[in-house]
Amino acid sequence: QDYTWEDHGYSLINRLYPDVGQLLDEKFQVVYNLTYNTIAMHCGVDTSMLRRAIWNYVHCVFGIRYDDYNYGEVNQLLERSLKIYIKTVACYPEKTTKRMYTQFWRHFKHSEKVHINLLLLEARMQAALLYALRAVTRYMT
């Protein structure tokens, strides 16, 4: 059974630490929804599918999968070098190199690459919280 932030984690953390759930949720939403609607030289682009693919790929790396998400999107939208970069930053941040940073999305702005980093770090934090909160839920029941 899925243990999601929206359905389980948010309410539990708010019960344990009032208002913290709201603060964390706002933090996740700000980073997730951040967009200039551009990709490289293209303007007016809906980047929501890309942002969702990155978020769900990070969760997938940590063993969290959602039944209602088509993971084929991840393979369509994320090139191999980006997936390697995401996995390295999320799992082994000390092994991340400048070369890895420059290898993915060569024609993209640094602000877009920074947004990728923000997305993956917040998704990683949410994944860690989900594991911890699920353990607390199991302990409490």
UniProtKB/TrEMBL annotation:
Note the InterPro entries from the entry: Sestrin
- Which terms does the UniProt entry file under GO BP? cellular response to L-leucine; cellular response to leucine starvation; negative regulation of TORC1 signaling; positive regulation of macroautophagy; regulation of response to reactive oxygen species
Instruction: List cellular component terms (GO).
Output: nucleus
Q: Which domain of life is it from?
A: Eukaryota
Molecular function terms from GO: L-leucine binding; oxidoreductase activity, acting on peroxide as acceptor
- Indicate what this protein is called per its UniProt record: SESN2 protein
- Source organism (scientific name): Mesembrinibis cayennensis
